[in-house]
Amino acid sequence: MPSNTPPGKPRVLSGITATGKLTIGNYIGALSVWAQEQDKHENYFFIADLHALTVPENIKANDLREHIKQIVALYLACGLDPEKSVLFQQSRVPAHATLGWIFDCVTPIGWLERMTQYKSKSQNATPSAGLFTYPALMAADILLYQATYVPVGDDQRQHIEIARDIAQRFNHLFGEVFRMPEPMIRTSGARIMGLDDPTVKMSKSTAQTRDGHAIALLDPPAKIRKAVMRAVTDSGSEVRPDALSPGVDNLLTLFGALSGIDRDEALRRFEGRRYGELKKEVAEVTIERVTAIQDRYHEIRSDETYLEKTLADGAEKASETAEQTFTEAMRSTGLL
Ligand code: AQP
What CATH number has the domain spanning 11-190+304-333? Predict the structure, then answer.
């Protein structure tokens, strides 16, 4: 066990990449779990702005600045409390990037070549070296804080596994510095699929080019209703448990996650009912939830000083924690 393992409540760390407008998938798979479990843990939640640069063709400086502010305001609007959770911006804690480099050097290329996210994201653009080594930086994000749990959506499971492998390899080469983190993944709703194509994950960067793909947390009600009512289902017309297509399954998962019941209960509720009715209720429950979030969001966004103070305080607290592990890693390699 590393000497800098935190005492007290289990420590939790997670983040969201500043690549676009947060979706209902980000909310259900990650944010809602963070907020719900906040009292049980010592929490660190960050805005992954360095990770947003991995596809530089998609970056405009003003958009990135706006996404960072939007994300921190949405963290607060979704119920994260700065008294209970450290909320911070990744690039304001330089130890992330330095430890990321150290991990680049201990990570075999073969491990990075196996990452499915690299395989899928490198199809569209001229892939950057950053996109390839992203998992080493993500390992640094997690391991710097000696996190016990990393609450993420199902798509991130492979990234937690590689973070564990990197920790093990570093510890083997240089001595016990890092503890092994565990993923924390909800049983239902861990992977919300695209409304326009339920065979792919709902994703905020895909939403930038495909109307009707996602529901953004800041979308107006009319847009949400339109996207849900147009969601791809199948050639049938009513919900049949023995013939559930991915699109209908996704709508049931959305309904369950947003109304606090599990997917099977949602299925029982809609069995034999028409797709149109299911869509109508999914739209209503979604609009109700996002409207409450949006009301708080607009209030928070009207106070830029408070937002900046939240980020400044968060960076200070996160740096204090990160520094302990970072110093140990620097000593064990001989850099210090
Ligand atoms: N569709 C989803 N269903 C459930 N959970 C999801 N998450 C993302 N999409 C879904 C979870 O949200 C957290 C933050 O993810 P991220 O932004 O860092 O990266 P991502 O997983 O690649 O999410 P996106 O929206 O698809 O981003 P882009 O478009 O930038 O690649 C994670 O816990 C993730 O599991």
Answer: 3.40.50.620
